């Protein structure tokens, strides 16, 4: 007797809507209208005889039945996508899709990709620098590179390297920093803050300056920007002291406009960069080759 399956197309709609907690965002991902997503989920709920979403106002949240169903649907779709990629000569053969943050791609990955292309010219690379969270393998992503303090619980995680924070500034600004008893007067130093990593200065002071009796200056002082790249550019223009995240930003220190500040050593932090792959099965040989190359490139920085 054959399996009695729910409408398969509606399962994809359910998974996307549950992941985004939004019919609208699911529709944008799948190239549909929100009403089409809603109608497809209505069809699934009718087939099951149970509501899957609580539609309260503009938000949607999973019901208890939806929470129970989601892991089965996610795993089932993942297995179907993986199987299709394994057997089809058209889906992903000799092709790797990588999801990576823009700063990592520009400052670390892309400058090294020529060496991988030299070894494997037959492999077609697709680099995605959007900020969306990759879900394996439903988004067509084979490997993601993400920053975080610990392995991801839902993916195979391979640590590439940890980070360290290094205060940097234009040499002219560094020479005229305010000092007190021969040390930098941090209360009057012009710090550059980055919104996306707003705790970096606190981490550096906890690791280094506090050991010398220094305290983190008031948070409101200094220049505030939204990316690490912009902070380094501002520092190179003499606008203040930035924190370079090493080894990612090591190339920036080769320019004449930026230099480490004397007496301010780099401080290791818990965050690092991880290569993430779908868990539970071995990757295709093209992905395995890219991962081996990636870990080889990162090995000098792993420590």
TrEMBL record:
One of its GO terms (molecular function) is sequence-specific DNA binding. Residues 6-63 form the HTH lysR-type domain. InterPro entries: LysR-type_TF_proteobact-type, LysR_HTH_N, LysR_subst-bd, WH-like_DNA-bd_sf, WH_DNA-bd_sf. One of its GO terms (biological process) is DNA-templated transcription. Keywords: DNA-binding, Transcription, Transcription regulation. The keyword DNA-binding applies. The keyword Transcription regulation applies. Coiled coil: none annotated. Transmembrane segments: none annotated. Belongs to the LysR transcriptional regulatory family. This is DNA-binding transcriptional regulator, LysR family. It comes from Stappia indica.
